[in-house]
Specification:
This is Formiminotransferase, N-terminal subdomain. InterPro entries: Formiminotransferase_C_sf, Formiminotransferase_N, Formiminotransferase_N_sf, FormiminoTrfase_cat_dom_sf, FTCD. It is a single chain. With 665 residues, this protein is α+β, with helices and mostly antiparallel strands. The protein folds into 4 domains: 133 residues, no CATH class; 208 residues, Formiminotransferase, N-terminal subdomain (Formiminotransferase-cyclodeaminase, Chain B, domain 1); 196 residues, Formiminotransferase-cyclodeaminase, Chain B, domain 1, CATH 3.30.990; 98 residues, Formiminotransferase, C-terminal subdomain (Alpha-Beta Plaits, 2-Layer Sandwich), CATH 3.30.70. The chain is built from 16 helices and 31 strands. Strands 5-6-4-8-13-9 form a 6-stranded mixed beta sheet, with helices on one face. Strands 18-19-17-23-26-24 form a 6-stranded mixed beta sheet. Helix 4 runs antiparallel to helix 5, helix 10 runs antiparallel to helix 11 and helix 14 crosses helix 15. The protein is elongated and about 90 Å long.
């Protein structure tokens, strides 16, 4: 191991970078069987690069090393920086006016760099909370910052669509937009989020003319939220002893706002705006609960540490991040600094298997979308454009079947966690929702037909954990996506597998809904054949079905393999007999589910799901089908997989996401 300490130029957000990285091959040394490592470190502090350089006398080799670092990092620095995430929670006093909520959500979509990752509505309180997450650009307080712009756009839309004078609910509030709170997430610090909150407060106060109160890190003295609320009479219901109706009376405010006018407009009210860490939010909520006698539940700490995110720098991979506050350093005159340590390994002198092992440490998750269309190229293009909106989600496979009139998309992305290890965010969520939206807009199930059963335009969405991701994490993401799709598009959603509270199997749900019964020519599925009012209540979304969209199933399960075996015969009855004898349900191979289907004009096919492909693989399925087909006097072709293996998916994901050029937001 070689240890080299050197300075690195300032990044654009104005902090000194004293970078500690393990980058290989920076010094010319003899090749060994172990990766070579050079360690750097960076801190955020007040020391200028000129002062730093004056402390050290670098000989020519040190300068050569520094120059090499610049070359390696210049093209990839943003890839590291864009893993810095910020969160904003926006609490709006309206949940019953659907048109107002649609307007607010459309406003957020004007800035695709910031995604709504959670939405919580309470009809009784008559309030809605949006949680947004965005990557940070190098200068978080600049006008190009997507989270700030998206939040401002939502606030403006809320004031245009909601009149506080007409509002009533059982939760206290001070304004149309009652509360806006910024939280630091991965590799981000509270001071950076305060640097976003303050300019936003300026915009709200000056441009929208709404009194704005700052607290937490956004306030110069760190004022507490409850002190503002008490002064403004927040906790006093004004109707029936437990209701809040109308807004603050127009006129002077009892407390001078930090931004905006001293006069309040009753139809708008005031805004509280802050930047706090997740732990402080929880402490404040708990303190308010005790002080005011309010019933408040526990919330998770919202400070995730993103580890093993697989950032690539040329021939090296970042396999981990750690962060901590540094102690004051008198020698270097850095009074307040944060250190971020990266572990970057080179694979140039490592075995290929070690490289794969390192990649697999990423917290990755896979999603397969089964969409009922393969012949309408314009519809497919629209869906695929939606899939490409976020570069951190990769489409690693696409499988078209014209006979079935069905397409499968396989997506891979990562999951971010909070400090307790609970999942809180994945780029995959918004990507899947966008693809579903595109599919529902471009495809009409009433005009669809094919030789494969289906229940909806988006027939099935399944999440599989990859690498070190757990099934519980996949289930969390499946439920989050189901909630978004069901509520946003009014689409009935049935959960299955680990995403279902009781672990219900997908085939059990399908039998209840008549999935396996063809409704056209004895071997085709055409249009919508089920009642428009479901007899079985879905887990998300309405009971009423749109015949143009149908319903969707969403689940989470361990990795399964899809393997199809063609039969050279048009006798679909014989194919179905063979399929049943191959399946576990019919007394055949354990962990194998089958379906005998018509496939084209001159053949049929046995579509197989291998639930435990490591135990019962494609070879055993192929042999059993050939044996049973021979007894029927039928010829069998070699089967095929409709998707890649887990290892291939991970390799494709790494190649697609890590080798791509950095892209500014």
């Amino acid at each position: 191991m070689k240890v080299c300490s050197s300075a690195y130029s300032k990044m654009s957000f104005g902090f000194l970078n004293f970078l500690e990285l393990s980058l290989p091959g920076l010094c010319q040394t003899q090749q060994t069987d172990k990766p070579e490592i050079c360690i750097f470190c960076f801190a955020f502090g007040s020391l200028t690069s000129e002062e730093w350089f004056s402390m050290f006398e670098f000989h020519s080799k040190a300068y050569a090393i520094l120059e090499r670092i610049s070359v390696l990092l210049s093209a990839r620095t943003y890839r590291m920086l864009k893993q810095m995430l910020g969160c904003c929670k926006v609490y709006i006093s309206e949940s019953r006016n659907r048109a107002a909520k649609v307007s607010i959500e459309l406003a957020s979509k004007l800035f695709p760099g910031a995604a709504i990752v959670n939405k919580f509505e309470d009809i009784t309180y008559n309030g809605v909370g949006y949680t947004m997450v965005s990557k940070l650009v190098p200068d978080p307080s600049s006008d190009s910052y997507p989270l700030k712009n998206a939040v401002f756009s939502m606030i403006k839309a809320a004031f245009e669509a909601i009149d506080l004078k007409l509002h009533g609910g059982t939760h206290p509030r001070l304004g149309v937009v009652d509360h806006v709170c910024f939280h630091p997430l991965a590799l981000t610090y509270l001071e950076q989020m305060a640097g976003i909150a303050k300019p936003l407060a300026d915009d709200i106060g000056c441009n929208l003319r709404v009194p704005t109160f700052l607290y937490g890190a956004a306030h110069e003295e760190g004022r507490k939220l409850d002190s503002i609320r008490r002064a403004m009479g927040y906790f006093k219901p004004n109707a029936n002893g437990n209701q809040w109706r109308g807004g603050l009376k127009s006129g002077p405010l009892p407390l001078k706002p930090d931004k905006g006018p001293d006069q309040v407009i009753e139809s708008k009210g005031v805004i509280n705006l802050c930047a706090v860490g997740g732990d402080r939010v929880q402490l404040e909520v708990e303190r308010l609960a005790m002080t005011e006698g309010m019933a408040v539940g526990k919330d998770d700490d919202s400070r995730p540490i993103c580890k093993n995110i697989g950032v690539r720098l040329e021939s090296a991979y970042v396999l981990g991040f750690s962060q901590r506050k540094g102690k004051p350093t008198q020698n270097f005159r850095i009074r307040k600094c944060h250190h971020c340590f990266l572990t970057i390994w080179s694979w140039s002198s490592c075995l290929h298997k070690d490289k794969k092992k390192g990649m697999k440490q990423s917290m990755l998750i896979c999603c397969k979308l089964y969409i009922s269309e393969s012949r309408n190229l314009a519809a497919l293009d629209s869906i695929e454009r939606a899939a490409r909106l976020d570069p951190e989600t990769a489409m690693v496979n696409k499988f078209l079947d014209r006979a079935y009139n069905r397409v499968t998309y396989t997506l891979v992305s990562h999951i971010a966690h909070d400090s307790t290890g609970c999942p809180i965010y994945s780029p995959l969520q918004q990507t899947v929702v966008s693809m579903v939206e595109a599919a529902c807009q471009a495809i009409n199930l009433e005009l669809h037909s094919g030789a494969h059963p289906r229940l909806g335009v988006v027939d099935d969405i399944i999440f599989h954990p990859l690498a070190q991701t757990s099934l519980d994490e996949a289930a969390w993401l499946a439920r989050s996506v189901a909630g978004d799709i069901g509520n946003r598009f009014q689409l009935p959603i049935f959960l299955y597998g680990a995403a279902h509270p009781l672990g219900k199997a997908p085939d059990a749900i399908r039998r209840e809904l008549g999935y396996y019964r063809p409704n056209f020519m004895g071997n085709q599925w055409a249009g919508w054949a089920l009642p428009e009012i479901l007899s079985v209540r879905p887990d998300e979304g309405p009971v009423q079905v749109s015949p143009a969209r149908g319903i969707a199933m969403i689940g989470a399960c361990p990795w399964v393999a899809m393997y199809n075996v063609p039969i050279i015969s048009t006798d679909v009855s014989a194919t179905r007999r063979i399929a049943r004898m191959v399946s576990a349900r019919g007394g055949g191979l354990p962990g194998v589910q089958t379906l005998g289907l018509f496939h084209g004009e001159e053949s049929t096919e046995i579509a197989c799901i291998l639930l435990e492909p490591n135990q019962v693989g494609a070879d055993r399925v192929q042999n059993r089908v050939e044996l049973l087909a021979a007894e029927e006097g039928l010829d069998v072709e070699k089967g095929y997989f409709t998707d890649c293996s887990q290892e291939m998916l991970i390799d494709k994901y790494m190649k697609l996401t890590l080798d791509a050029p950095p892209r500014l937001m």
